[in-house]
Amino acid sequence: MRKGPGGRQQSAASSRRTPLVVGALVVALAVSMGSPDAQAQQDGGAPSAQQPGVHRFDIAAQPLTSALVQFSTTTGLQVFYGAAIARDLTSPGVAGSFTPVEALRRLLAGTGLSYRFTNPTTVTLQAGPQTGSADGTTTLAPVTVDGSRGTGGGGQGYVARQGTSGTKTDTPLIETPQSLSVVTRDQLRTTKPASVADALAYVPGVSTQSPAFSRMADDLMIRGFNVATGNFGILLDGMKLQSNVYDGAIEPYGLDRIEVLRGASSTLYGQLGPGGVVNAISKRPTATPLHEVNVEYGSYDRKQVSADFGGPIGSDGKWSYRLTGLWRDADNWVRHVPDDKRFIAPALTFKPSESTSLTVLASLQQVRTKFAPPMPYADLRNGRVPRDLFIGEPGYDRYESDVYTAGYLFEHRFNDTFKLRHSARYFHADARWDYLMYGALRADGSLTRSVSDRREKSTGLTTDTSLESTFSTGPLHHTLLSGIDVYRRTYNSHRYRGTVAPLNNVNNPVYGRTPPVVNFNQDRGSDNTSLQVGFYVQDQIKVFDRWILLLGGRFDWNDSESKSYLTRNTTRQKDQAVTGRAGLVYLFDSGIAPYASVSQSFAPTLGTTRNGDAFKPTKGLQYEIGVRYQPPGSTLLLSGAVYDLTQTNVTTVDPADPTFLVQTGKVRSRGVELEARAKLGNVNLIAAYSYTDARIIKSNEPNMRGHAPDLVSPHTFSLWADYTLDDLGLKGLKVGAGVRYVSAANIAGYPNNVPGRTLIDALVSYDLGALGPRLDGVSLAINARNLFDKKYMTCAGADGCRYGDPRTVGATLSYRW
User: Fold this and answer.
1) Is the pTM of this model over 0.90?
2) Could you give the number of structural domains in the chain?
């Protein structure tokens, strides 16, 4: 329980000016396809004389367009074709191990279409003799349909087909026996979230802190459990990132997608809380040119410029790059609080062959803002504290965070059976974090305050190495994954306290006090180090192309040390744990896929009992049954899950001495989650509902038993829809709206509920390319959050409340070419 302080390539307008309406399946970031396999003669698509690579295909007979999506996802090739020539055609499918050329021939058998390679990574489909330019190539103006890992694997719009977080392999969502939601690239681009918490607003089972807090930290709850603890369920590219929740939030503009894996997941990721993980996937170099510049202005004098560039380097296809950056100067709805950020993330990929790729990723982020200290629920509920009140001192309060990362992702396929993956990253963060804390609000309107002065430095070094092998034993097709990951963490926190005069009047404050600060560490200042090493193995077994059995196991050990600056005591602890996971999926031809799974989690607990015995790790156990529905060839995904999740060895006060803790506490969460994602013509739709019955069922504090953990509301519902009005004669115009409902929440240790809320979001955007070719690539979007300015709060305990954000509106002028 927490009580802390809290690519658009070319416009569709081009295709409208020609009789040929062009469809394109564009695969970005694919690691399995390189230039040798893609070489072909210009006179008819014959394969290169070079040794071709081989891929494993499992594409059923279905509409040709959807079969080509799967082909692109598997090979990394871009497929360009005229929409008219593919309409109503059916592919016989392809199953087995083939080169991309051999597989493509089988997919097109009986369709009457031919193909040609126009460059090493691009295939053009055509009907009848080739026509085009004098050099025998055809120039097409593509309408881009994302079919890559960039949208979570072979997705369109907001509907992803694949995800990596559920298995650490490229697995279709419908074959994953655990709840997994993907916030796609298109959704991020359309809704323009200011934080990861904002990006997850339409995902079931997730609850977050106020945006006032989220600008500094990604503090999230999944299924009633905190995933932003010291064990960190916040991942970047599948690896643990931060060593401390206050190191700085992840910038969503630097992400290609976000995957949310709900439920106990230690078998894949080691020490975690039982709620699950949030895996942010960074933008990667692209095989096709990408250029984007955005200029934004919005509420509270928000000024932001962002840019994203990528594409190949040279003509041989071996090198490609990505450069993403953002610069923001902004105020905040709380007076005297800035919201400034600088972010840049370069990336470079070297792919010397189809079998090998190396991507180097780095980032630098600077945040300049001020902390939003928690306040008592009673004062906010009664309206005694204005929403825009700044309780600190303008010349003293600060939150300054400098974060940089550097790492790489390496992949090598030895043959059709074995693939090696190895990734590593170094993380470093420096933060100066000074603020005045809320004391007591007096009857005369004055407010007592105290001082917190913090200097923090943390590092994280993480690696993950795995070997994937695919093979068959009779009717059983195996994808066997075995690996080792390592996470070394340091976190050095100096914390000082002091005194300051009261704020004279919360409704008309006068500032100018300089807080004196004591010169020794108090509270919880400490120097922490830990080393986690884990071995894992997982087998995905497909039986007769119907049943999918997933079995996994892991062994972890963790060494940690913490030195208190106040007491000078050093605590050393060694923990180890074995966790497992099993799941079963059945695939119907109709696209229905029911599943069942059981999984475990563990997380070390630092400290000792009254007798000096080290605490045991907390343990989580989850049972889940669910079903997905994704009709073949459709852009529809329906998901539902029911779960029972329990965490044991939770600390609670020692009845014999309340200054110590014992591990007799227990927290249970049961619930239902429903999610729908669809692209229906020009309509994109997301709907989500979750019922979360999370309770503290064992505690030595009577006022805690039966209450929900922090931030957890039993009912949440969200709906987002946007509609492009082209078919109504309003070409280029898009409108969208969303609703987010959160029911009242019961605060542990307090008799009343935090009121529920219903928030409305809205979007209007216009593609100026509809006005003429000179404006091709230019668009204007206006996004609004909390459109009707609903006043609400979020609470992490009775004394840990913050106001939510008021209405915010922003306009973005973008140019993509």
Assistant:
1) no
2) 3
